[in-house]
Amino acid sequence: MATETKKLSIICFSGDFDKAVAAFTLASGAAAVNWEVNVFFTFWGLNILKKQQGRRFIGKGVLPRFFNFLMGGSRNLPLSRLNFVGISPGLMTGMMKKRNVATLPELIESAKQLNVKLIACEMAMHILGLTKADLIDEVKEIIGVPTFLEYSKNGQIIFIS
Predict the structure, then answer these.
(1) 16-115+128-141+155-160: CATH homologous superfamily?
(2) pTM value?
């Protein structure tokens, strides 16, 4: 008798450090126990997938370039609460290392190694003026909501905002 593959799909809407940690912890954990995992990044969540780190004027148009500059990539994610002028993610990373907990870069790398499917939202990419070339190579697809829902069919969906 064949067993059905368990499936987890995560919608990552937030560009906050702690929420990115949660998304990648869930994704890596599920993939480590052989679940099929899809992570759909939309709006501010796309910041986590940017190839170029730091504040860069990327995108098409004045407003998209401005928004993308302000976001700054996965190394510039703010903490959702108590960000303390941007120092909290560094403090949190230090606490994670001290307690031998995987850091955000380690969780992202783990997700890549475990073949977590990293997916970009077509609509958000269009609004922010981004192209596939702006994202890390592990993003294989840019899709819309109907395709994401098809990928997620018969599985669990978690929304991290």
Answers:
(1) DsrEFH-like (3.40.1260.10)
(2) 0.87
